[in-house]
Design brief:
This protein is mostly beta strands and about 500 residues long. The chain has 3 domains: about 90 residues, Sandwich (Immunoglobulin-like); about 80 residues, Immunoglobulin-like; about 290 residues, YVTN repeat-like/Quinoprotein amine dehydrogenase (Methylamine Dehydrogenase, Chain H, 7 Propeller), CATH 2.130.10.10. It contains 2 helices and 47 strands. The strands form 13 sheets. Strands 2-10-9-6 form a 4-stranded mixed beta sheet, with no helix packed on it. The protein has a 4-stranded mixed beta sheet with strand order 12-19-18-15, with no helix packed on it. The longest helix is centred in the N-terminal third of the chain and has 18 residues. The radius of gyration is 39 Å and the shape is elongated. About 0% of the residues have low confidence.
């Protein structure tokens, strides 16, 4: 009995040890649900409100914060420039101010740099600063006694580019002799007494001075009239005071005209239209009629039997004809010959503008760049090559050549007179474009230039001084906006705008 009890106890003990604990353990609690990253509530971009200069490089930074003001890191930021034509920025926020000619026209534009992350955008605003380097003064080289006019200036930056528009009142003005020329703070000039005074303009730490001469003699203006239509355009003038050009008739057609001693007459046409382009001192006129080159001799129209355009005639009756070809035509006593250049860089003529007594032809031609050129005896001389615009406008018998050349991409057009390899600048009228049109044997030059307000004005240049011809007109109502020729007496033909009606009129200026 005792053994049986021991045996049962052992069995129970073994059963308990073999089966172990049958209690079910509780399942572990699940991990907490991950919270979404804090949303970007604010982006601060720096630096801000600083000014930048051309060529500057700057590192922008963006600080991201949540709604509680906590700084957020590791977020993707997308950078952008609001004015990529002025300033570029890469994916790391490195920005660079680039040189662009539009910056000149914009002055000091406001630039916006943005940093975006998620739905939020931050920005920095600043101005691009253009350092002024020099001034182009809009002053009368000469002005009639008793006249008033507004002065002005164009600011060029350190690169020589126009640095934005400025009002005359933005400058500080002074006169070395206010009894001769007075200048008001607004830039208004008054010619009070015959003599000379030095006028100075200053702005932003730079200044420039020029001499203004008050004179008591100017030009008498004569209106040429029309052939019955609304307008007339003069093209050339000889030493006799004979003027040729084209005019609208009463029916609206363009007809070649001749003006002499106050009388305007129709030169006629072989078709529906005609135009007179040039004449010599013998009164032989060349032009176009019915798409043919023609000449008028003693008023009689004669065909040259070619469709090329005549542009000039010399005293021997040789006629220069041009098309957009590598060569030109020279008509002489019924025969034509080609004028070309023995050059591997064959030029295509854009324009043939003049011929002198030695047979030297000037104009503009294109090879790799637009160039002001002269050609003589088959030899081509490049006077000025420009990436933007260049042309030789006229030549006199002494071999003096006037023309212009553009500076790209600043869009400055500068004038020059060239002789025997020496080049002299023709000063502007305060604006960015100066284009000579003609000169006489004395070296007096006329052309068209813009003033500081961008308005076209006819100019006269001689002896290193440029004058706005309007400042010398006895007629206070008209503004001379175009010129085409000057003769040995100093008479000038061109177009004037009537300040009362706005009409453009063909006019002759005769010096007093």
């Amino acid at each position: 009995m005792q053994l049986r009890r021991i045996y049962l106890a052992l069995c129970i003990a073994l059963a308990i040890s073999g089966c172990g604990d049958n209690t079910v353990a509780p399942e572990p609690a699940p991990d907490p649900k991950p919270q979404p990253p804090a949303r970007v509530a604010q982006i601060t971009v720096s630096p801000s409100a600083d000014s930048l200069d051309l060529g500057d490089e700057i590192q922008f930074t963006a600080v991201l914060r949540d709604s509680a003001g906590n700084t957020l890191t590791g977020r993707k930021v997308e950078w952008a420039s609001g004015s990529p034509e002025f300033i570029t920025i890469d994916a790391e926020g490195r920005a660079r101010v680039i040189k662009n000619n539009r910056l000149a026209a914009s002055g000091a534009p406001e630039i916006r740099i943005t940093a975006a992350s998620g739905e939020q955008v931050g920005e920095a605003r600043m101005h691009l600063h253009v350092h002024p380097g020099s001034l182009l003064l809009d002053l009368p080289g000469r002005i009639l006694l008793g006249r008033n006019r507004l002065a002005g200036a164009t600011v060029l930056d350190g690169f020589g580019w126009p640095a934005g528009a400025r009002k005359p009142s933005d400058f500080s003005w002074s006169s070395s002799d206010a009894a001769v020329v007075a200048v008001a703070p607004t830039g208004e000039i008054s010619a009070l007494r015959v003599g000379k005074a030095v006028i100075t303009a200053a702005v932003g730490g730079i200044g420039r001075s020029d001499t203004v001469e008050v004179v008591d003699r100017g030009y008498v203006l004569t209106r040429l009239g029309t052939l019955g239509g609304a307008e007339a355009i003069p093209h050339d003038l000889n030493d006799r005071g004979q003027i040729v050009g084209r005019s609208r008739t009463a029916s609206g057609e363009w007809h070649a005209f001749e003006w002499l001693n106050g009388r305007l007459r129709d030169l006629g046409t072989a078709g529906e239209a005609s135009a007179a382009h040039a004449l010599n001192n013998q009164g032989v006129v060349v032009g176009m009629s019915r798409n043919e080159a023609v000449r008028w001799v003693n008023g009689e129209l004669r065909s040259l039997s070619v469709s090329w355009q005549p542009t000039d005639i010399d005293e021997e009756g040789r006629i220069l004809l041009y098309r957009n070809y590598p060569s030109l035509l020279l008509w002489e006593r019924g025969d034509t010959s080609r004028v070309g250049a023995a050059s591997p860089d064959l030029y295509v003529w854009y324009s043939a503008n003049g011929i002198n007594a030695s047979g030297v032809v000037v104009g503009s031609a294109l090879s790799r760049t637009p160039s002001a050129v002269a050609i003589s005896a088959g030899r081509l001389t490049v006077i000025d090559a420009s990436r933007y615009d260049a042309s030789a406008a006229a030549i006199n018998d002494a071999g003096q050549i006037v023309g212009h050349a553009g500076i790209h991409p600043a869009r400055l057009v500068l004038a020059f007179i060239w002789h025997n390899g020496q080049r002299t600048s023709i000063g502007p009228l305060g604006g960015t474009e100066t284009r000579p049109k003609a000169l006489n044997e004395k070296g007096e030059v006329v052309g068209v230039a813009t003033n500081s307000r961008g308005e076209p004005r006819a100019f006269y240049w001689f002896g290193g001084r440029t004058t706005d011809l309007t400042d010398l007109l006895r007629d206070p109502v008209r503004v001379l906006v175009e010129v085409s020729a000057i003769n040995e007496s100093g008479q000038i033909v061109g177009l004037a705008t009537n300040g009362s009606t706005g009409a453009r009129e063909a006019v002759l200026l005769t010096p007093e």
